[in-house]
Fold these 2 entries.
Entry 1:
Amino acid sequence: MRMWLCPRTRVPVGASALAVLVLCWIYIYPVYRPAGHQEMVREVLDFGSGWRRNRTALDSIRKQLDDCCDPVRLFSVTKQNTPLGENMWFDGEFLYSLTIDNAVYNLFPQDTPFKHPLKKCSVVGNGGILKNSRCGEQIDRADFVIRCNLPPLSREYTEDVGSKTQLVTVNPSIIDKRFQNLLWSRRSFVESIKAYKQSSIYMPAFSTKRGTEPSLRVYYTLADFGTNQTVLFANPNFLRNVGKFWKNKGVHSKRLSTGLFMVSAALSLCEEVTIYGFWPFQMDLNGKSISHHYYDNTLPVTGIHAMPEEFIQLWFLHKSGVLKMQLAQCTEEASPQKSQ
Ligand SMILES: *[C@@H]1O[C@H](CO)[C@@H](O)[C@H](O)[C@H]1NC(C)=O
Ligand SMILES: *[C@@H]1O[C@H](CO)[C@@H](O)[C@H](O)[C@H]1NC(C)=O
């Protein structure tokens, strides 16, 4: 019996320390790592501007998205897809649900208020690569423009990002941060939302417990002030299924970014999708340092999103002709978009 124990205690301390070191090394530098900025720049430049839309590839991914997530029907919460009394499970909480009572049910539109299919759509991420891109006009030329998280559209940015908006997402946390949860003056919120004209305001009201109240406040505020915007609540079943869809394709993050949710919806809702400002690196294609957003350099909280992994997926969609990813400046010769 004793013989068994002895050899184990004799393992040299040096060897076990080495083993721990190797394990740490593998943990910090896993064999698979998402592409770095330089590899990506080389890849983008090598691919060049010879992009062509591929109907077959688009139809194939659209079918996959329709099968898993049914964006046309489930994109937002409506009276049709969420009956009174339903127990709605939140997608961002562990086992938490809300029973839809009369008061909440009455906030839902009968059906998703978009004409389907939408023709040309621009999905605008907020990446610093948009700064000095002069893409504003091209973005606005789409029939339907989707923007993320109440981005500033003031005059200084219009040339680069445009101003047309049909859908803008709002994260409940910025209602708290920028507008004191609408508990005090609501006027500054109403003023700032004017930039989005007749847009729908898309809020994940049923994803996290904390997000519900601010989302409902936004709804009531806009209703009370009689603004031109309408509020749509993200359907947690849609978000959950889109999350699974991308997880199966190798995006390992706690939660997808709003941008990828919107691109996924657009691929299903729109005939043609062009995306702007999706570039999660700190340098542009010329190696020039850029800010994180086109309007500021606030870095994201780490450990929630997996931006480079998401980017690889979007880049793959670009390469296969499913959508067009605009990374270069929108120069004159590039602007008359030939659609095939
Ligand atoms: C378009 O995509 C399909 C399916 O992904 C592929 O088989 C086909 O070769 C592509 N066509 C062109 C012209 O690239
Ligand atoms: C709604 O839009 C119209 C025309 O676009 C504008 O005249 C009006 O001031 C807007 N109302 C509000 C409350 O912003």
Note: Residues 54, 56-57, 60, 320 surround 2-acetamido-2-deoxy-beta-D-glucopyranose (ligand 1) (CB under 6 Å).
Entry 2:
Amino acid sequence: MVVQHNKAMEGGQQKVEVNILLLGAESVGKSALTVRFLTRRFIGEYGNIESIYSHNDKIDGREICFNVWDSLCPQNGEVTGHISDRQLQWADGFILVYSICDCASFSLVAQQARRIRQAKGTKCPGAPPVIIVGNKRDLRHRRTVSSEDGRMLALSNDCGFFEISAAETYHGVLLVFHELLDLIREARTHKKGAAGIKGIVRSMSAVFGRKRTE
Ligand SMILES: Nc1nc2c(ncn2[C@@H]2O[C@H](COP(=O)(O)OP(=O)(O)O)[C@@H](O)[C@H]2O)c(=O)[nH]1
Ligand SMILES: [Mg+2]
């Protein structure tokens, strides 16, 4: 089995590695989402632990390594919901989580989406993609953030959008991570493309520049 695996890698099937950062207010379900994705289970209580988990998967015959950073929302810092430079640099893609029963957590996601756009320019091709997730969909009777508001926020910040319940299903959580993986891979292709065009322009201007001086 190991030999076959190595052969597959030699055959041009390179392993894809993606860094995914989960952000959002406290208690919205960031850890629940992370644990659901990693183990398929919902365990109820997660404690206040910040960690980066690695999870290997095979999707469409390709090895994928998901590095998932389940963050803690800083509470006592100058700015609640602050995103550090290290986090911004580390992440290839972002999942911004709010609870559909918590307006304040929705406002925080709006701030964080703007912050990421400022720092990374999400509208440019090649920028790290962002998915906004309204969690706790099972608590419909306590809803204070409408689906429309969620969708509008995502649309105006060029983000993806899902409403899910980490408590109820694994499938919704899986969709979020797989969609983000696709968007990250798309962004990488754009980046490579842009680098390629820049390279051509550079070499052409080098040639023409030289001719002009001759
Ligand atoms: N009803 C419901 N509760 C959830 C859901 N996701 C998380 N929770 C609960 O919300 C609380 C906070 O979840 P946690 O993942 O620790 O939030 P975090 O602080 O954002 O990491 C816990 O009691 C979870 O059991 C959900 O989809 N539905
Ligand atoms: Mg947590």
Note: The first strand starts at residue 16 and ends at 24.
